[in-house]
């Protein structure tokens, strides 16, 4: 006997062909959105990697440029207004003129026939092309900067006032700087000593010279003031060196304006054409120099690094010391050269930072 089993699989399914097209379109839309987001993320990651690589290359270029500049300045001779990079430059002494070896005497006529290759310490710019991209190096004698360690309170106060601190605030900041680095714990008017720092739960004053610009933030009220400035603004006008002597020749326009020094060229202005003039003679630079290195990035910005070099010619084991000032990225073009990067604004070709080959005029 055959038994028929009834099919109880439920009602007949509807035809789903009408839902296929919307499903496909939604799927395609989701894939497109995910792909777009992934592409954007990949682009951002690629740009970030390229930026990091560019900055890494720039810092390698800075290392090469620093080495070239230090070698050049250590092997050159100090002359009026800067350093003579010509290896054949004669040695001028009170006893006459000598060959570069310092022993062989030469005549005045022969010495004057040897051309100079002077790297001006009054913001003279040279170029280093040994890296991936050119690095521009600006040279300045530190006597054009106000020292926060050796400068007088009135000079420091004038710089702070120029940077936006009011009269009372400038006086307060200056007094607290002086109290922070002096050796005693006696509080001067408007100043702050150990008890004032304890009340604010701050570390006590170091009672020693400022070692780096970041240490200024440890002084009462200085951190707030520095936060109001663009990075590097104070550093561009001051130094932590211990030379208190200032000279107008080596000052920037901002320092001149802050100290209310006339820009009259008769007082030894910054015009390099005055070098060697009978009426105006730029002084010989000291061994304490500031180097400002600039290098363009692929983003169109400029990476800027500032260091100071202290020559110690009598110290054979440690002939120089290098001090870090700051490094920052500048929006736009902050390089003192034209767009092709090989010429200065006046159209003259920038000289290389490394000493040129020995140049000696034919005196026959």
What does this structure look like?
By secondary structure, the protein is α+β, with helices and mostly antiparallel strands. Helix content is 29%, strand content 18%. The strands form 4 sheets. The protein has a 5-stranded antiparallel sheet. Helix 3 packs across helix 4. The longest helix is centred in the first third of the chain and has 56 residues, at 20-75. It is flat, with a radius of gyration of 32 Å. Residues 265-280 and 359-364 have low confidence and may be disordered.
What distinguishing features does this structure have?
disordered C terminus; 364 residues; flat; five-stranded antiparallel β-sheet; alpha+beta; 13 strands; 7 helices
Major sheet: arrangement of strands: 7-8-11-12-13
The biggest beta sheet reads:
5 strands, antiparallel
The number of E-state strands comes to 13
> First CA to last CA: what distance?
138 Å
Give the number of helices: 7
How much strand? 15-25%
Unreliable spans are: 265-280, 359-364
| H/E topology pattern | HEEEEEHEEEEHHHHEHEEE
Helix fraction bin: 25-40%
- Overall pLDDT, averaged? 82
Task: Output the radius of gyration.
Answer: 32 Å
Shape: flat
- The SS-based structural class is alpha+beta
Topology:
Layout: H1 20-75, E1 77-79, E2 82-84, E3 91-93, E4 96-98, E5 105-106, H2 108-112, E6 118-120, E7 122-128, E8 135-141, E9 146-147, H3 153-162, H4 167-181, H5 194-199, H6 222-227, E10 238-239, H7 253-258, E11 288-296, E12 302-311, E13 320-330
Parallel strand pairs: 9-10
Antiparallel strand pairs: 1-2, 2-6, 3-4, 4-5, 7-8, 8-11, 11-12, 12-13
Helix pairs in contact: 3-4
């Amino acid at each position: 006997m055959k038994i028929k089993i009834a099919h109880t699989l439920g009602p007949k399914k509807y035809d789903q062909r009408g839902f296929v097209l919307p499903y496909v379109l939604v799927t395609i839309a989701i894939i497109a959105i995910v792909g777009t987001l992934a592409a954007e993320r990949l682009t951002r990651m690629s740009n970030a990697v390229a930026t990091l690589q560019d900055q890494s290359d720039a810092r390698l270029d800075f290392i090469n440029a620093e080495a070239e500049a230090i070698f050049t300045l250590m092997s050159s001779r100090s002359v009026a207004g800067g350093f003579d990079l010509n290896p054949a430059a004669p040695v001028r002494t009170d006893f006459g003129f000598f060959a570069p070896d310092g022993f062989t005497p030469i005549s005045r006529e022969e010495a004057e026939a040897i051309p100079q290759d002077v790297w001006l310490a009054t913001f003279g710019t040279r170029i280093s092309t040994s890296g991936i991209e050119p690095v521009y190096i600006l040279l300045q004698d530190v006597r054009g900067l106000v020292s926060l360690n050796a400068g007088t309170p009135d000079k420091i106060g004038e710089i702070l006032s120029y940077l936006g601190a009011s009269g009372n605030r400038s006086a307060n900041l200056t007094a607290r700087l002086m109290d922070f680095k002096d050796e005693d714990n006696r509080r001067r008017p408007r100043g702050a000593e150990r008890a004032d720092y304890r009340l604010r739960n701050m570390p006590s004053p170091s009672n020693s010279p400022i070692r780096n610009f970041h240490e200024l933030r440890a002084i009462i009220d200085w951190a707030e003031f520095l936060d109001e400035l663009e990075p590097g603004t104070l550093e561009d006008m001051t130094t932590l060196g211990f030379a208190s002597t200032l000279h107008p020749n080596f000052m920037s326009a901002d320092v001149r304006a802050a100290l209310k020094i006339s820009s009259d060229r008769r007082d030894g202005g910054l015009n390099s054409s005055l070098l060697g003039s009978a009426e105006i003679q730029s002084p010989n630079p000291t061994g304490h120099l500031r180097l400002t290195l600039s290098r363009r990035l692929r983003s169109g910005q400029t990476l800027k690094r500032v260091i100071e070099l202290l020559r110690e010619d009598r110290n054979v084991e440690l002939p120089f010391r290098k001090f870090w000032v700051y490094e920052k990225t500048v929006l736009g073009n902050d390089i003192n050269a034209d767009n092709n990067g090989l010429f200065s604004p006046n159209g003259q070709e920038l000289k290389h930072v490394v000493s040129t080959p020995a140049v000696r005029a034919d005196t026959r």
